[in-house]
Amino acid sequence: MSSLTPSDMSSSVPTGPGETPQQKLQRLQRELQLATERLLEQEQLAALGNLVAGVAHEINTPIGIAVTAASGMEEFARSLTRKLSGDKVSRSELQTLASQLEDGARLVNNNLARAADLISNFKTLAVDQSSAAEMHVDLSPYLRGIVMAHNPVLRSAQTRVELDTPEHLHATLVPGQFSQIVSNLIVNALTHAFQEQPEDRPRLIRVRLHSQGERLQLHFSDNGRGVPPEVRARMFEPYFTTRRGSGGSGLGLYIVHKLCEQMGGQIVVDEAHVPGLGFRVDLPLRD
């Protein structure tokens, strides 16, 4: 577990010609800021890339069922044509074929609708995260869509999400920032919360969204292994990770922290939540 600071870099990088130690420190701080911004962009793209892979895998099932059903309908249609071209066809035969065609059409329609939902939820997530425009949003269905976009990775991790939201909750905000906050919290939980947990123990994430006066409250929690106090104290630091050398960038929760600040709010660890780990996000409602 470690984090990188400008003072760490200052002690190892030589001073340039005519550069004072103070100037060197300022230069290194600028370089670190630029490097952090590039890493933040890469982190966002990597997260979307993982979702793309999950959606691509998930969408194969409904598309495959729809193709199989369409193939069956084609055969039923040929059978119907043969019978109608013959000398004799009974009402019961026509009714059977009509029922088979109807069942096939229903399968095609339901599974294509499921595929369309998967694509739509992911498209909304991807497009919104690339936009900084404020919008008036009903956050209740929007939050459900964000969670549905993560269904492939949630299913792969054998983790269930419980949502607690009002039927409608309107707010004016940047949807992409809100969706990335939720997305990063989901990915962080899947990455850290359930390590070394017995497979027969249910894995659960709870997300509660509600308003309190002029504020928007998002409570995010899991029933995982939790984290020790010394880790909690540093969770929102840039580059701090408990998975150094295992692919952890240490930027996931830092991004959430910065986004909350940009939106005029904050995120804190819910010290009262046990077992597992909880976060409380407080944002302006601006209905």
Automatic annotation (TrEMBL):
Entry-linked SMART domains: HATPase_c (SM00387)
Residue stretches of biased makeup (Low complexity): 1-12
MF (Gene Ontology): phosphorelay sensor kinase activity
Record-listed E.C. numbers: 2.7.13.3
Domain Histidine kinase: 54-287
Annotated region described as Disordered, given as residue ranges: 1-25
Catalysis performed (reactions): ATP + protein L-histidine = ADP + protein N-phospho-L-histidine
Alphabetized Gene3D superfamilies for the sequence: 1.10.287.130, Histidine kinase-like ATPase, C-terminal domain (3.30.565.10)
Pfam families: HATPase_c (PF02518)
Keywords annotated in UniProt: Phosphoprotein
Name of this protein: histidine kinase
The species this protein was found in: Kinneretia aquatilis
